[in-house]
Amino acid sequence: MAAKGITFAILAAGIVCLTVSSCTSGSSTTKEHHDFTGTAAGSARSPQESILGVNTSSEGSLPECLDSVVQRKEHVPTIELTIKGQPGDRFSYQVLKKDGSIITRKGDEFKPDQQDAIFTTGIPNSEVKTVTVTAEGGIGTPGKCVITTIK
After folding, report:
1. Domain segments of the chain: what residues?
2. Binning pLDDT at 50, 70 and 90, where does residue 43 land?
3. Radius of gyration from C-alpha coordinates of the chain
4. How much is the pLDDT for 4?
5. Are residues 45 and 37 in contact, defined by beta-carbon separation less than 8 angstroms?
6. What's the pTM value of the predicted model, to 2 decimals?
7. Three-class SS of residue 83?
């Protein structure tokens, strides 16, 4: 009987150890938050850095938006964007629909404690050709990027 008690105690300790190990391993959903420029959250962006983390080419073609800055929610039927920034940043988006129509929305300036904004468009993915995101204000260079991977 005592052997069963010891076996149970060892088994329970092993389960606790595995649980703690999986919670502290790389599989955790808690990750270091990054702002547009790839610096740690709360650190300042330099005036020379792009607010969107990408630079518009001199040729006029827009770069693809970085997922670390402009995240498109996947597996939803409409376009939903989460845009990360710093206080003082302002973002807007322009949806070019497959029928040629354009829908534009502007967000408010980020507040002193704000690090992201969610834009829910209500526009079905099947109707969208591209989404262009514009950044301005705050510290850093303004710019634009585009999302072309709408499915």
Report:
1. 38-151
2. low
3. 22
4. 46
5. yes
6. 0.69
7. strand
**Which positions ≥6 away from 89 have C-beta within 8 Å?**
36, 51, 109, 110, 135, 136, 137, 138, 140
Pull the structure tokens for residue 30.
Answer: 């808690």
Judged against a pLDDT cut of 90, whether residue 119 lies above it is answered with yes
Q: Sign of dihedral through CA atoms 122, 143, 47, 71?
A: positive
Task: Give the whole-angstrom CA distance, residue 10 versus residue 64.
Answer: 53
DSSP state of 44: P
- Spatial separation of the C-alpha atoms in residues 109 and 151, rounded to whole Å: 30
User: Right CATH number for 38-151 from 1.10.3470, 3.30.1380, 2.40.420, 2.60.40?
Assistant: 2.60.40
Give the C-alpha separation, 96 to 10, whole Å. 61
Helix (H, G, I), strand (E, B) or coil at 23: helix
CA dist., res. 150 & res. 77, Å (int): 11
User: At a CB cut-off of 8 Å and minimum separation 6, what does 32 contact?
Assistant: 40, 41
Provide the token pair at 16.
């606790």
